[in-house]
């Protein structure tokens, strides 16, 4: 009975996974216990999953942060293992209860003291038995194969195994419980042999699979090496190309700087000559005036009187000279200020760009003074100017007025759909559609009237949606070409959307003091303030943003180029003198051929580069 109890205790101290005595036992939520190392291995099999499935009952346990050490320890079991390790194993063969065992026979299933071991090793039938030293058993180097004792019949070994019930049984249990149909009973030794063979087969397959994946890993390493070599080669090539590009850019930079210097130094030299001449006049006036006016004595003799008269005549002649002519210096200044660097944005940026002279090669008076309300590019590359006195005037890129259409309509806004139909906003904020033959279509749009929305501006996006901005209402309505009510509204919180331009998935809005890039929900993505003068924006052919700054008081316009984040790129036009109109109202667009059209209420300026 004592031996049976010892065997039962020994079996209860074995981990179901590794079949060895528990090491650092951890309890799962299902109450089953396993070695920490075994649980670590099981968790690794699940990858990054934090759920651990019990091998016995399949219940899942949450592993905090995938750290098995944080699971509760089976303290009672650890204590029992320590107690068992500290107990001596006595001989189970001799009658002496005090003889300490030195070996364990796997075949006999008994512990032997040194005396019994000597006798046992001399028996011819037992010479081939598998005998284990107790020192190796205690150290954990070897595991004891224990005979299973039946729980119902403790004196009988479980020498049989039922394949259907998946359990070992003694002969009595087999006769009483496992003889019915469906029970396949084999000897335990046969099952163990088959089980060992099955495990060996699985291990062999696992070795082959592991070898297969190892070859795959070796293959991946080879591919990584190839990719790494490509990366190194490309990096070397890029560095070489970069160094060559830097040399070319440095050379190009020096050429461009030299070209700018050559174009501007000549102007500066001429201005210096004019300045020198003016300074000589000042010196001449000062010298003669000092000589004449500083005389405190009246000349009495003939020679002194003659000299005095001559000096006075010289001063009189000098005073007859005309006042300085600013026109010459202004023209020279314009020549110098027209020099600009035209950067290659979105093109071959390695070429940097070129030095160009920006100048207004056309200055066209509009047919009707103080009438321009809107300017927009046409689908065929021309420029349409809408007038509040009636009509849309079409100008070519060389500034020729080619035709005037819709003369009877007072225009506030103009746009074009993808099928070239005109979209017209009149001075009552009504939208109308016109065919190419300028026949009005029966399409009605429910816009805000002047008393509710006040001044409105229209823009047609690339998606054929029609955008109408209202100053007073501080919002933008979006319409479908089919007409009817607005399909949505875009709020403009805190500012008046005085001009709008569709730009990719955004809108560029202009108010008195700022240019804003907003999304289709009204969220301001980028904002440009404190430009100094009234700003007017448009989208360039290179998909950048052009901003004109107008000093209306003196009639000067400058045009700069910005990125889609409203970061400055370059100056295009610097302080160009325009004829000051009555109204502070301007529009800017770019022709498809590259010229910039700048329109005042009275005139159309077309800037070109050469």
UniProtKB/TrEMBL annotation:
Keywords: Metal-binding, Phosphoprotein, Zinc, Zinc-finger
Domain of life of the organism encoding this protein: Eukaryota
Family matches, as Pfam families: zf-B_box, zf-RING_UBOX
Residue stretches making up the RING-type domain: 15-58
Record-annotated B box-type domain positions: 86-134, 145-188
SMART domains for the chain: RING (SM00184)
Signal peptide span: none
PROSITE patterns the UniProt entry points to: ZF_BBOX, ZF_RING_1, ZF_RING_2
Coiled coil location: none
A GO term from the CC aspect: nucleoplasm
UniProt GO MF annotations: ubiquitin protein ligase activity; zinc ion binding
PANTHER family in alphabetical order: BONUS, ISOFORM C-RELATED (PTHR25462), MEIOTIC P26, ISOFORM F (PTHR25462:SF296)
Protein name per the record: Uncharacterized protein
Organism of origin: Strongylocentrotus purpuratus
